[in-house]
């Protein structure tokens, strides 16, 4: 039935075609073809040795990580929807989709809309095996939504709101509307040295290194993997 | 899914770095759980087929057998693997569940076997993946239905023997429901069937015109008016029988209210009521019109046949179960009828002397056309009428053809179900018989073992060894267990026949012509059940006596037992066995001869009277029980000439 694709685009041609099919009782073959989607692209990571060089994981750790990753995402990449879904499984009470988006953007270093195994492992390597400075750097990168090198109050407010969203409705004490804003204010008070309304990377690093709590909490990541 | 969670957890924890700088309080320290990496490969050996998988894979579902420490019970340290003595083909699916998170249902395996495997490995059936869930549920439902049928058949099925204490009512009800159980019930069944047929035929013949004699030849009379008395008598007879049957059923029904509400009883009532109403109502011209109408109901007697025919019942049941399809058919037909009748009416309105005088009048035309009958009494004459008429007939075919296959398939399914039920009932009987045989085999093995003196603590070791060497370790332990139970309860095991006979349930005019009647009272249930150890010897002897009687019924089992009895010589007889543990009883050795008398059944009758005489004073005459000897000179192999004297 594929006679003249161009001519058949016209509505008259289509009407004639459907009448012909009605009379002869033939099923239209085109609909069958249209249903075949392109199979998903399969992404393969670089070799194990290269990853070993690039990250601070051992060979075995990389193997374990990859096996889990491949099991979950046989195509080799994670897109934003999957990412959000995965992350939301850990926070059933609240809405973690916004924060997951921010995380996704932080992991997706080349900004191509998908997180491959290399991105994944690179991010994990920084967080879990990097120095304190590396981690703080990564966190700053996360907060800096437009990647312009400084955190504005609006960006911080977005981040803060997304974190508080993850808590959900049922908290003790009950969440107030202005809690994120207040939190942002206190954050800026602590971090913004020159009070210019934005926090740069240097200010951020400096303030964090001076903060006892933050430094102590860094050992959270010691035995995650 | 748990698999996903376990894999992504490290990532989620790493992502917490984003909260660090914002935290106003110090974050809690991480748990000391050393995420024990060193991911090792486990070997799971299922009936010889080795499956290897990562330990992490199995750990994904910690509430199952393989994911928890329960699998350590199956660990074989010598080979370093986990051994399961189960079906390896099914295990494949179970393991795939751990790997992919989806449990698939194998198509070619029995669904119950699959369920059992799931239960063993601790997997809940709800875990079956969506792709296989529907099929799994369907197959399970089908299986459950079939099993429910089995149970129903078992319960509703006629047990071969009613409990001895059944009342007349129960027996009557059983005779009604299962006519093939006794001859009288069968006779009754056929008689009622015959009378139903007679009644229906009489109704029909009543209306045939009989050639009257020449004098009344002005018009032909139906036979009913020519021979009113004959037909009235026949009708009366039929109604009497039906009434009697109905009342008997009402009396015998276990639940009268339910019986009154059942369909069959309603049919019965409708069948006989017009007659009585006709009797009561006086022959009045006003009422006779109604009276005539009532006679129409007599035709419902034909439905009484559904008790006799299973096919009719199936048909009725099918119609009931297809109620929705029938309803749909009716509804769509009504819609189409109304539409077409309207159209035809208005199309034919202009014609002179048209048949289509109104829309309801056009209904008749539409129905006849849609069902493609086409009587031709109403025919359109305009062109528009003809066009719409032809459309009407075409669409009629379609509308009717659609629900019919559904009804047909329903009928076929129910019919096959019924056939299957019959087949299964037959299978059940065989199975039950086999089970009964196996059970009695076990019991008799034990009894025979006892006869052979296996219970002797010390005994003529050689003979004992000969008799008992063929028992396996299992049997030995089993028999020891039964023996312990006997000792605990001060009762002994015996077999069914002897017990039922001892209860006095022997029917003299019963199945066999040979019988030994247990005459006097003390041998009845009282002595059997109320007495305990001191009377055991007597009871046992009586039981033995009864069991000899049962030999005459040709039961091979008893014959075996007695043959065993015979083989073992007197010193190892049962009474002597009990003489040892119960030395307090003054059983004299006469009881030994007593038993010997019984043993001699297969031997020529001449022996028995001699041996039985000396034993008359035995037992101190505790209870006068006389077992009458009924010696029948039958040509049969086992002449029964046992004269057992009182104890």
TrEMBL record, chain A:
The keyword Calcium applies. InterPro entries: EF-hand-dom_pair, EF_Hand_1_Ca_BS, EF_hand_dom, Recoverin. GO terms for biological process: regulation of potassium ion transmembrane transport. Gene3D superfamilies: EF-hand. GO terms for cellular component: voltage-gated potassium channel complex. Keywords: Calcium, Cell membrane, Ion channel, Ion transport, Membrane, Metal-binding, Potassium, Potassium channel, Potassium transport, Repeat, Transport, Voltage-gated channel. GO terms for molecular function: calcium ion binding; potassium channel activity; potassium channel regulator activity. It is found in: Cell membrane. It holds the Pfam family EF-hand_8. Residues 95-130, 131-166, 179-214 form the EF-hand domain. Belongs to the recoverin family. This is KCNIP2 isoform 1. It comes from Pongo abelii. The gene is KCNIP2.
Automatic annotation (TrEMBL), chain B:
Its main location: membrane. It holds the Pfam family DUF3399. GO terms for biological process: action potential; protein homooligomerization. Residues 506-524 have a biased composition (Low complexity). Residues 144-163, 506-531, 601-634 are annotated as: Disordered. Signal peptide: none annotated. It comes from the Eukaryota. Keywords: Ion channel, Ion transport, Membrane, Potassium, Potassium channel, Potassium transport, Transmembrane, Transmembrane helix, Transport, Voltage-gated channel. One of its GO terms (cellular component) is dendritic spine. The chain crosses the membrane at residues 187-205, 259-281, 326-347, 359-375, 387-408. Residues 40-139 form the BTB domain. Coiled coil: none annotated. It is a multi-pass membrane protein. InterPro entries: BTB/POZ_dom, Ion_trans_dom, K_chnl_volt-dep_Kv, K_chnl_volt-dep_Kv4, K_chnl_volt-dep_Kv4.1, K_chnl_volt-dep_Kv4_C, Shal-type_N, SKP1/BTB/POZ_sf. One of its GO terms (molecular function) is A-type (transient outward) potassium channel activity. Gene3D superfamilies: 1.10.287.70, Potassium Channel Kv1.1, Chain A, Voltage-gated potassium channels. Chain C. It is found in: Membrane. Component of heteromultimeric potassium channels. Identified in potassium channel complexes containing KCND1, KCND2, KCND3, KCNIP1, KCNIP2, KCNIP3, KCNIP4, DPP6 and DPP10. Belongs to the potassium channel family. D (Shal) (TC 1.A.1.2) subfamily. Kv4.1/KCND1 sub-subfamily. This is A-type voltage-gated potassium channel KCND1. The gene is KCND1.
């Amino acid at each position: 039935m594929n006679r003249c694709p161009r001519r058949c685009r016209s509505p008259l041609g289509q009407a004639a075609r459907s009448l012909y099919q009605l009379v002869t009782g033939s099923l239209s073959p085109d609909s069958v073809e249209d249903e075949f989607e392109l199979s998903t692209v399969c992404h393969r990571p670089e070799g194990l040795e290269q990853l070993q060089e690039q990250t601070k994981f051992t060979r075995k750790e990389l193997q374990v990580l990859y096996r889990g990753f491949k099991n979950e995402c046989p195509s080799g990449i994670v897109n934003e929807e999957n990412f959000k879904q995965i992350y939301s499984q850990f926070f059933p009470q609240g809405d973690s989709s916004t924060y997951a988006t921010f995380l996704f953007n932080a992991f997706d270093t080349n900004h191509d809309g998908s997180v491959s195994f290399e991105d994944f492992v690179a991010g994990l390597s920084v967080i879990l095996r990097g120095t304190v400075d590396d981690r703080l750097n990564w966190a700053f990168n996360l907060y800096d939504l437009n990647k312009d090198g400084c955190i504005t109050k609006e960006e911080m407010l977005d981040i803060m709101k997304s974190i508080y969203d993850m808590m959900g409705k049922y908290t003790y004490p009950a969440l107030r509307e202005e809690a994120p804003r207040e939190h942002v204010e206190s954050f800026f008070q602590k971090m913004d040295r020159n009070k210019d309304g934005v926090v740069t990377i240097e200010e951020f690093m400096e303030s964090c290194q001076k903060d006892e709590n933050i430094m102590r909490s860094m050992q959270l990541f010691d035995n995650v993997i | 899914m748990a698999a996903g969670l376990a894999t992504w957890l490290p990532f989620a924890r790493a992502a917490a770095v984003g909260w660090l700088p914002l935290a106003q309080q110090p974050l809690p320290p991480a748990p000391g759980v050393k995420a024990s990496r060193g991911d090792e490969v486990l070997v799971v050996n299922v009936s010889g087929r080795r499956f290897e998988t990562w330990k992490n894979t199995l750990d994904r579902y910690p509430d199952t057998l393989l994911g928890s420490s329960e699998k350590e019970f199956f660990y074989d340290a010598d080979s370093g693997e986990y051994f399961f003595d189960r079906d390896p083909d099914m295990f494949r699916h179970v393991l795939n569940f751990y790997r992919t998170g989806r449990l698939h249902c194998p198509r070619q395996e029995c669904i119950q076997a699959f369920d059992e495997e799931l239960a063993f490995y601790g997997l809940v059936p709800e875990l079956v993946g969506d792709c296989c869930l529907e099929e799994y549920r369907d197959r399970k439902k089908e299986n459950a239905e079939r099993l429910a049928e089995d149970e129903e058949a078992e319960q509703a099925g006629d047990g071969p023997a009613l409990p001895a204490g059944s009342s007349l009512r129960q027996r009557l009800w059983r005779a009604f429901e299962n006519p093939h159980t006794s001859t009288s019930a069968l006779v009754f069944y056929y008689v009622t069937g015959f009378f139903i047929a007679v009644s229906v035929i009489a109704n029909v013949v009543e209306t045939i015109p009989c050639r009257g004699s020449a004098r009344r030849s002005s018009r032909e009379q139906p036979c009913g008016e020519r021979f009113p008395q004959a037909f009235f008598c026949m009708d009366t007879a039929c109604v009497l029988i039906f009434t009697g049957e109905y009342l008997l059923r009402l009396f015998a029904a276990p639940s009268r209210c339910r019986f009154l509400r059942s369909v069959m009883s309603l049919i019965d009532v409708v069948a006989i009521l017009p007659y009585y109403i006709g009797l009561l109502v006086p022959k009045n011209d006003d009422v006779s019109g109604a009276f005539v109408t009532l006679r129409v109901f007599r035709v419902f007697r034909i439905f009484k046949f559904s008790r006799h025919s299973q096919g009719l019942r199936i048909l009725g049941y099918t119609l009931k179960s297809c109620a929705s399809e029938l309803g749909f058919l009716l509804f769509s037909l009504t819609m189409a009828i109304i539409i077409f009748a309207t159209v035809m009416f208005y199309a034919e309105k202009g014609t002179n002397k048209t048949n289509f005088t109104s829309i309801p009048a056009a209904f008749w035309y539409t129905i006849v056309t849609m069902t493609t009958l086409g009587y031709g009494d109403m025919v359109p004459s305009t062109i528009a009428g003809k066009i719409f008429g032809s459309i009407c007939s075409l669409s009629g075919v379609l509308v009717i053809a659609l629900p019919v296959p559904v009804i047909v398939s329903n009928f076929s399914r129910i019919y096959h179900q019924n056939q299957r039920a019959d087949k299964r009932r037959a299978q059940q009987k065989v199975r039950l018989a086999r089970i009964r045989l196996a059970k009695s085999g076990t019991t008799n093995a034990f009894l025979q073992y006892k006869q052979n003196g296996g219970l002797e603590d010390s005994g003529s070791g050689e003979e004992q060894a000969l008799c008992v060497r063929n028992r396996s370790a299992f049997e030995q332990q089993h028999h020891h267990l039964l023996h312990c139970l006997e000792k605990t309860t001060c009762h002994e095991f015996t077999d069914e026949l002897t017990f039922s006979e001892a209860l006095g349930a022997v029917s003299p005019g019963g199945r066999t012509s040979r019988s030994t009647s247990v005459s006097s009272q003390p041998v009845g249930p009282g002595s059997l059940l109320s007495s305990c150890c001191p009377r055991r010897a007597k009871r046992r002897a009586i039981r033995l006596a009864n069991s000899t009687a049962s030999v005459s019924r040709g039961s091979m089992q008893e014959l075996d037992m007695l043959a065993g009895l015979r083989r073992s010589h007197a010193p190892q007889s049962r009474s002597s066995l009990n003489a040892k543990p119960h030395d307090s009883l003054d059983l004299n050795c006469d009881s030994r001869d007593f038993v010997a008398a019984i043993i001699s059944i297969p031997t020529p009758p001449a022996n028995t009277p001699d041996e039985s005489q000396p034993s008359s004073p035995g037992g101190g005459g505790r209870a006068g029980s006389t077992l009458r000897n009924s010696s029948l000179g039958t040509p049969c192999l086992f002449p029964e000439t046992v004269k057992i004297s009182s104890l």
